[in-house]
Amino acid sequence: MFSVAILFAGIVGLQDVSAQGRNWESYYGSRGNDHFSELKQIDRTNVGRLREAWRFDTREAGGLETTPLIVDGVVYAVTPSQKVIALDGRTGKLVWTFDAHAGSMAAKRGLTYWQEGRERRIFIGITDRLYCLDPSTGELVKSFGGTGYVDLREHLGREVSAQSIGLSSPGVIYRDLIVVGSQVAETLPAPPGDIRAYDVRTGALRWRFHTIPHPGEAGYTTWPAGSWRHGGAANNWAGMAVDTAHGIVYVPTGSAAPDFYGGGRVCDNLYANSLIALDAKTGKRLWHFQGVHHDLWDRDFPSPPTLLTVRRDGREIPAVAESSKQGLLFVFDRLTGKPLFPIEERPVAASDVPGEKASRTQPIPLLPEPFARQEITEKTLTERTPEAHAWALAEFRKMRHGSPYNPFRVGEETLVMPSFEGGGEWGGMAADPRTGVLFINANDYASVSGLVAHRSSASGRSFYLNQCGQCHGADRAGSPPMFPSLREIDQRLSDEQIAGLIHEGRGRMPAFPTVQGDSLKRLLDYLHTGEGDSEGSGEHDHADVDAKSGKEGLQYTMTGYKRFLDPDGYPAVAPPWGTLSAIDLNTGKYLWKRPLGEYPALAAKGMKETGTENYGGPLVTAGGVVFIAATNFDRKFRALDERTGELLWETQLPFAGNATPATYEVDGQQYVVIAAGGDRLMVAKDALGGVYIAYALPKETR
Fold first, then answer.
1. What is the pLDDT of residues 274-306, one digit of tens each?
2. Angle, nearest 10°, between helix axes 495-504 and 517-529?
3. Which of 247, 284, 502, 679 has the fewest beta carbons closer than 10 A?
4. Which of 654, 661, 699 is nearest to 676 (CA)?
């Protein structure tokens, strides 16, 4: 199950020597996810002299999104194939490896560390299991669950073997509990997104919060009757924050399944798209805020919330900040749930799709102003070349646009701004607790999509549209390279290989273990032949049913995740296409905002600092430096002055650093480490890897 790379005596010696080091024991630096470090050996005056201290190449090509943990000089991390590794924090040399033999390349964003006295544990979710490891050796702690793991498919009130569930982000610790969310399918059938707390020693389930309320629970009437039995998602995939002093866990959730058509889940759908404050001891709800009512746009809360202190009128207020894919930032008193800046419920457009009932209003914070653009006009289309502008203008005039909350239509595309990828994304925010300033990076381009109508039937096409179409497109063309085309897939993969991908999942694609028997055969037949590709896409299907036909006769499925790109593959809106902002949460005002990233080909022609798509968040230190990688196309790791946003240092990574950096200290030396693995959703396979790189100051300059 594991291999030890050095003698156990060497491990003990390593820990003893490094005992005075500064640690990074939580996913994002602290249980409040502030991405902040008190280390200041590296500061704004010397950061320009950083040099590579070590690198560890996993020699796996699958991409990394992980922020490692560092405890007493040992770096705990994950490889692209979901092995857990321990590295010497001074040299990067391998200490031990744990391999669950999961056969999965789905990215893991981190681990969970727990310690009480001499007892220590490392936790990781791999496929549908939560594993518990000994940090000294990488061995399973067999007392946890009786086997070293617990089965996450259990305790959901559904048939265990039929559940597709995993963890993309690590659980959080409160005393002797590990609290976890889940990654589930975004189409039905999908398990409910229940929040669960397990005993860190035994693996026993201690409490469970229903995100799809059961009869008698608050929020039950915001769903059709019986949804708790068959509804799905409303899950926490992004991670959580814990206020250890007050015993509160803060849980952001995603949308309910299915994402884009809600005819079968009318009403607001609590607690989907919500920030929920739970009593960490019992799981009892203390307060909640729903960021999108009856979500029709996949507007999950995408990142763990950030806990910080806000100063108002000479007093300090414990606050919780949550970013959104819409590019909106919500800030609350974390004890009461009271907004610290006004939030208005504003009227939005109704849906004209049969069976759908869009919410009449959506919540909009008045401060801070959105950190990503909310609307595109003809004046804000690309001017990169006259030809690109003319193309963008012609396409723009064909689409529905304006409000970010326009429901999709059948037979007409809608411009989605910000894109399906945010606004804010899973990397989250950094906060300087000394100042109350928040640092947040954003995607700032547009997407396009709509709905396709199809007959509710047992056909392979209908099954494909319900389960696969929203990612791979109604026409099976996908949106490469993020979502590959499935046309002629039978010429690339055997039926057995396709079935394996369906049942086990890969990358962003979840597993679908229930697709068996006749359903699997019909799906495979459809992927082979494409028979009926034009069925259900025309106006006749939309017109011959009554308002109840959302569940009877016709189904409505998203046409696919498509970016609004010009013919050369660049965003069809004007730059910046990615940004990094500093916001003073004491006032709600921006201190600075700058483009983040560039396209090397455009920069070579003089079009620099356009900003690019970016994933992974910032790190801020007491040395006054903001570190961030994140950018997809230029593969750079940057350091900026937290006061001004001025670039102080940058270096080239072997692959895009789609992860949040961490910092630690060993033997008086401060290191900054980043996972470089490439963007597993966007780039060619030969641009994916798995390398951890640490940087430090030359010893003579410390």
1. 999 999 999 999 999 999 999 999 999 999 999
2. 120
3. 284
4. 654
* Residues 232, 255: Cα–Cα separation, whole Å: 9
Query: CB-based burial of residue 19 (10 Å sphere; 0-12 exposed, 13-18 middle, 19+ buried)?
Result: exposed
Average pLDDT, the chain: 90
DSSP strand pairing (274-279 vs 248-252): antiparallel
2-449+566-667 against 451-559: fold identical: no
Distance CA 93, CA 73 (A): 12
Specify which residues 275 forms β-bridges with.
Answer: 252, 289
Q: Which of 164, 170, 349, 167 is nearest to 257 (CA)?
A: 164
For residue 479, the model assigns a pLDDT of 65
Asked if the model's pLDDT at residue 464 lies above 80, the reply is: no
What whole-number distance in Å separates Cα of residue 224 and Cα of residue 215? 11
What are the E-state strand segments in 191-299?
195-199, 205-209, 232-233, 241-243, 248-252, 256-257, 274-279, 285-290
Using DSSP's 3-state secondary structure scheme, residue 595 falls into strand
**What's the pLDDT at 13?**
35
* Residue whose tokens read 């924050």: 241
Tokens of 80: 């692209």
Q: Which among 282, 340, 279, 287 is positioned nearest to 309, based on CA atoms? A: 340
Structural element, H or E, at residue 699: none
Nearest to 671 by CA among 697, 641, 635, 634: 697
Average pLDDT of the residues in 75-90: 97
Instruction: Give the pLDDT confidence score for residue 488 in this predicted structure.
Output: 75
Model pLDDT, residue 62 = 85
Check whether 7 has a pLDDT greater than 70: no
Average pLDDT over residues 381-408: 97
216 φ, ψ (degrees, to nearest 5): 90, -10
Domain residue ranges of the chain, discontinuous segments joined by +: 2-449+566-667, 451-559
Distance CA 389, CA 569 (A): 13
From 418, 399, 396, 400, select the one nearest 351 (Cα to Cα). 400
- Mean pLDDT for the stretch of residues 71-87: 97
The single residue listed with the structure tokens 């939309």 is 542
Banded model confidence at residue 537, pLDDT cuts 50, 70, 90: very low
Which segments within 417-521 are labelled E, that is strand? 429-432, 437-443, 447-449, 451-455
147-184 pLDDT, tens per residue?
Answer: 999 999 999 999 998 888 999 999 999 999 999 999 99
Average pLDDT in the 118-123 region? Answer: 97
Which DSSP category does 279 fall into? E
Structure-token pair, residue 502 = 């369906």
336 has pLDDT over 50: yes
Burial 579-601 (b: 16+ CB within 10 A, else e): bbbbbbbbebeebbbbbbbbbee
In the chain, the percentage of residues whose pLDDT exceeds 90 is 76
What's 161-220 look like in SS3?
A: HHCCEECCCCCEEECCEEEECCEECCCCCCCECCEEEEECCCCCEEEEECCCCCCCCCCH
Q: Rounded to whole angstroms, what are the CA distances from 653 to 18, 81, 643, 702?
A: 28, 21, 25, 24
Mean pLDDT within 38-62: 97
Q: How confident is the model over 10-27, as pLDDT tens digits?
A: 333 333 333 333 999 999
What's the half-sphere exposure (Cβ side, CA atoms, 13 Å) at 488? Answer: 2
Residues 451-559, CATH architecture: Orthogonal Bundle (1.10)
Domain 2-449+566-667: assigned CATH number: 2.140.10.10
Structure tokens at 385: 């070349």
